[in-house]
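Deliverable D5.2: sample structural annotation.
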Amino acid sequence: MVVMKFWRLPIMAVVAASLSQCSNSIGTGTMGGPTMSERSAAIATEPRGDFFYGRRYFVQKTNFWGYLRKPGQDARNAKLVVIQERQTLTPDRFLAGGAGEKQHGFDQNYEYRIWGNYTGRTVYDLNSNQMLPEFFLSRYELVEKNPGWLFRPDDRYDSTKITLFPR
């Protein structure tokens, strides 16, 4: 019986360590924001039009811009896109290492109204190993600098790896 107790101790330690690693995906998120019902109510009443709502999602060394969704749609329907900038540059298109707010990715999690259209092409993003839809940007307008979580209140943002997925 005593041998069994000592045998259980290392297993319990491994289980406890594994559960502590889950803190990146459960519990309170790092992005803040409204409750799920508040977010649903805001989406239900947001202006409609011939545009998309875009949420900037910056992850170092990736080429995607962020998530786009149609007005009135939940973020679970959003698509991660690569922006084609032939006509209009994205809001953060500054030289890397710029001063103050003028740094690539400064607008992480900003919400925009985005005008343009999907080109029908898919683009390979080497660093995220994904084939993503290409979106032709014609113009944008800032809606909110701090809208909070994107998919769920327990979203956790990490600028070095992809942590936000529709769910």
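Annotation notes: The chain has a mean pLDDT of 82. Residues 28-144 form one domain.
The annotation will be released with the project's public dataset once the embargo ends.
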